[in-house]
Amino acid sequence: MDFAKSDIQTMLLDSAERLLSDSSGVEYWREQHRSPLGFAEVRWAQFAELGWLALPVPEEAGGLSGTIEDVALLNIALGQALATEPYVSTVVLAGHILEQSAGEAGAMEALGSIAAGTLRIALAHQENGADPLSLDGVAMTARARGGGFVLDGGKIMALDAPSANQLIVSARIEGEEGIGLFLVPSGHDGVAVTAYPLLDSTRAADIAFNGVALPADALLVGGNHALAVLREAVDRASIAFMAQAVGAMEAAVKICGSYVQERKQFGVVIGSFQAIQHILADMFVAAHQARSMLYHALANADQPEARRAAALSAARIVIGDASQLVSRNGIQVHGGYGLTDEYAIGHYFRRLMCLEKHFGDLAAHLERFGGSVLA
Amino acid sequence: MELRLDPELESFRQEIRTFINDVLPPEIKERQRTKVLNNATVPDQNEWMRILYRHGRSVPHWPVEFGGCGWSPMQIFIFSEELYAADAPEFDWGGTHMLGPVLYTYGSDELQDRFLPMIREGATNWAQGFSEPGSGSDLASLRTSAELVGDKYIVNGQKIWTSGASHCDWGFFLVRTDKTVKPQLGISFLIVKMDSPGVTVRQIPQINGDTHLCEVFLDNVEVPAGQLIGEPGMGWTYAKFLLEHERTTSSFIYWSKRELDRAKEIARGESRGGRRVADDPAFRARFARAEADLLALEWSVLRVLAHEETDTPEAAAASVLKIRGSELQQEITMLQVDALGEKALRFYEASPVAPPPSEAWPDYVPGRTAVALIARAATIYGGTKQVQKNILAKLAFGL
């Protein structure tokens, strides 16, 4: 067991430090919030130049074949800087699904385009009322027709879909077991995207599919295997989001540590009050435990599904609890200023709230993990 | 970054598991598993130390030249984990984990030759005389005095919360040898024989029925001057070293793992209204949180053991272990109590032998509440939770 960073990881974090510290902070975030996609194309191109978009992509597709640990370390930095780019959707989530369907020539090509920064893909899977963890609540249908498929149905909360060129869409293939995952151009006939911003300035969309006719090779992976691939991809995305939460928490804790040494009341800095000190200590403990649990999830990332899922849910519980404690106390020590859009802490609060609820919220993970603990 | 466990450690674990299974007498294991309270099992504890000593494994964490095993921190971690999982008796912590490291680090050759063998052979039990009635969190204000007269120190004062003092042969005491300097600089570290004239031990009746905690009165106790460890006035430094040396054990991670397993056993065994406690959603959520928090604690321990590089001092990570470790001991023991429901209210006398189990009263009932009650001490001893938070505010934030 070794927590020391490899040379590649150190280089990665150095590059992240350089790019992200130049372009983050309240003014930058507010500007992105007002922008059409919630992030700047120019910075996405920089992500590509720095090799970040190629990180987990296999070498044979033009990537760097980085590990999930590499991806997590980069995402800690993205979380610290509250980056709103669709990194997890495109590189981690879609990247993994494409890699697992690499038998398809189109998939390898798409991976190459992701690495080059010319293609963004979002997952359109979630349907209203479906279980966010089992991932099998798919009512959307794919009917075989003329050697291809026709898709009908609706998806909600497709993260990062508004900026995506392509969508990976889950649907039940009529007459077959399991589900299929289809690659669909976002501007395809019959695809209607209703975009909206989320609390943290990222974007999501509800998407209606009406008689969307696709060629046979649009099916990336089907049958019972598709659900397994989807779960793997979502678990990896969940790890990347946990890494972002760890980064965001650590940054928020630091911000609060500085703030209480500047803000004066009763003629002294509020950090001199033990009541405030103990709040900060609680925040430090929570953020520390959160990072520990990210390591636990990473150590189990390649385990068989049951063990991987248990480790992931355990990590989501600790990190979800910690996110709430850190962000809520973060606002508390800032007093009224914590409620304004002009202080960083409120931005961290909103990002941490979003990260806690993507791919199954705290309650869902508590229920699932409780079942495995007492099985 | 390599987060997977070295496969060689897995075979080491198997070897240790087999070893413990081979040498731990079944009757001792059973008494440990079903004991109601601590004091009753001191003879078993000493016997177990002697067995480990015969196999060269009574103080594996010490340097090899003093009887250690030369194991890595991870191997020592695994050894401890397996001891707890097997219901082996506790170490004599005062000797093996507190005084021992101070002695082999700061003690003279003479003191090392005299006392280290006693400790590693399991021949002695050691009392820790730090706290005083007026000096708890503010330990540096301690007043027990040791005055050098000829070749002896004359010790006068009172210590409190000295665990197990009534059965200890020896003790290590923080005493004031100089009243003229800053409080921290006037403290020395003294070894005292507990049957010396003038030493009186009073057992304190506790809320759980045990009398493990003691008061120690020192009335003109004569102690050979050679039993002062290291330099006079350096006691505070040695005491801080001792506490820091115990950085990861303060997490109680192995103990808590075993007790969480026992909580699960209770939740599966107890039913109310035809539903197992284990199937109650409210309990399941508590168990999920406890298990997840314990995993986080374990990884935090591993991070300290591997000396992970962080931008805050390692002592900050140690305070995290103490805070979360103590909170989890309390949560897990209360989970046992709550899973037992009203049955947890039955009071059991301190006895090495629990009453025979029955269908309504399985052998997991006796002892649970007694332990949960004394677990309230976890956030008090060794630096209260509030003191730990003060330390964190300073180390992590410079406040």
TrEMBL record, chain A:
Q: Name one GO molecular function term.
A: flavin adenine dinucleotide binding
Cofactor dependency: FAD
Please tell me whether the keyword Protein biosynthesis is annotated for this protein.
no
Q: Does the keyword ATP-binding apply?
A: no
Q: Where is the Acyl-CoA dehydrogenase/oxidase C-terminal domain?
A: 230-360
Q: What CDD domains is this protein classified in?
A: ACAD
Q: Which Pfam families match?
A: Acyl-CoA_dh_1, Acyl-CoA_dh_N
Alphabetical list of InterPro entries matching this protein: Acyl-CoA_Oxase/DH_mid-dom_sf, AcylCo_DH-like_C, AcylCo_DH/oxidase_C, AcylCoA_DH/ox_N, AcylCoA_DH/ox_N_sf, AcylCoA_DH/oxidase_NM_dom_sf
**Superkingdom classification of source:** Bacteria
The record's keywords, sorted A to Z, are: FAD, Flavoprotein, Oxidoreductase
Residue ranges constituting the Acyl-CoA dehydrogenase/oxidase N-terminal domain according to the UniProt record = 8-116
The text of the family note is: Belongs to the acyl-CoA dehydrogenase family.
Q: Which PANTHER family match?
A: ACYL-COA DEHYDROGENASE (PTHR43884), ACYL-COA DEHYDROGENASE FADE28 (PTHR43884:SF20)
Q: Any idea what this protein is called?
A: Acyl-CoA dehydrogenase
Which organism encodes this protein? Answer: Novosphingobium endophyticum
TrEMBL record, chain B:
Membrane-spanning segments? none
One Pfam annotation reads Acyl-CoA_dh_M
Segments forming domain Acyl-CoA oxidase/dehydrogenase middle: 127-221
Cite the Gene3D superfamilies for this sequence: Acyl-CoA dehydrogenase/oxidase, N-terminal domain, Butyryl-CoA Dehydrogenase, subunit A, domain 2, Butyryl-CoA Dehydrogenase, subunit A, domain 3
Q: Which GO terms describe its cellular component?
A: plasma membrane
Q: Which cofactor does it need?
A: FAD
Q: Which domain of life is it from?
A: Bacteria
The protein's matches in InterPro entries, at most eight in alphabetical order, are given as: Acyl-CoA_Oxase/DH_mid-dom (IPR006091), Acyl-CoA_Oxase/DH_mid-dom_sf (IPR046373), AcylCo_DH-like_C (IPR036250), AcylCo_DH/oxidase_C (IPR009075), AcylCoA_DH/ox_N (IPR013786), AcylCoA_DH/ox_N_sf (IPR037069), AcylCoA_DH/oxidase_NM_dom_sf (IPR009100), Mycobact_Acyl-CoA_DH (IPR052161)
- Keywords for this protein: FAD, Flavoprotein, Oxidoreductase
**Which ranges carry the Acyl-CoA dehydrogenase/oxidase C-terminal domain?**
233-394
Outline the extent of the Acyl-CoA dehydrogenase/oxidase N-terminal domain.
7-122
Q: Which GO terms describe its molecular function?
A: flavin adenine dinucleotide binding; oxidoreductase activity, acting on the CH-CH group of donors
Question: PANTHER family annotated for this entry?
Answer: ACYL-COA DEHYDROGENASE (PTHR43292), ACYL-COA DEHYDROGENASE FADE29 (PTHR43292:SF3)
Q: What family, per the record?
A: Belongs to the acyl-CoA dehydrogenase family.
Q: What is this protein called?
A: Acyl-CoA dehydrogenase
Question: Which source organism?
Answer: Novosphingobium endophyticum
